[in-house]
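Hello forum,

I keep getting stuck at the same step: I have a sequence, I want structure tokens, and every attempt I make locally crashes halfway through. Rather than fight my setup again tonight, could one of you with a working pipeline run this one for me? It's a single chain of 250 residues.
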Amino acid sequence: MLITSFSNSEGFTLAQYKSVLTNTYILQGFKNSFTLSVISAVIALVVTLFAVYAITHFSQPVREKILILTNLTSNFSGIPLAFAFIVLLGNSGLFTLLFDKWEIGALSSFSLYSWSGLLLIYIYFQLPLALMLLYPIYDGIQQQWKEAAALLGASTLQFWLKVGIPVMLPGIVGTFSVLFANAMGAYASAYALTNSNYNLVAIRIGALIKGDIFAQPELASAIAVLLAVTMVTAMLISEWSIKKTRGKLK
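Reply #2:
Ran it on my machine without issues. Output:
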């Protein structure tokens, strides 16, 4: 892919990268994907932090059943996920018809095929992954830490602000970077839902490879390389943040 991105019929060239960096439509695709990835990762992370905290208060058998269900849910993605949402929230979906019947204006005006619909699907497939990544982090908060803090007169809020959250922060940052990369590379669900009607970088790569008019694999390779660089940069920033946070804790 890297070699292809620097080549054309005449040999070595930088023309593909020049096209990517000067093409407003491709840059818009990067911007849309970046925005969608960050927002979906943040929302999934916040929701999952509270969800995992609640799960830790259940008995061990209940926790195991929830984790099994989460594992199964995390594998429900791609085209089947898009189809399920279309059946439920599409133009003639079950909930769409119910919202119209009950005259719930704010919900009946919702469009699954818009940016909001894409965000909803992205959040859905981010949640199980975030839960599986954050559960071991919460599990690492030992009960004797809470008891020691209580004996020293600390409230529950003070414990989480001074001990719990700082200990969990490296894991939270790492989870965010994984969620961001997961969303940036997502293709099947977005394509099945919007085809090529919404400009995302993964959809642009697919369109250039299959060729709506004619294929441009060299340009697709250049976009894919830049997408990989974006995700690797996010991972490196995350790694740097984790090391810095752990250094402060020590």
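The CA atoms of residues 108 and 114 lie 14 Å apart. If your local run keeps crashing, start a new thread with the error log.
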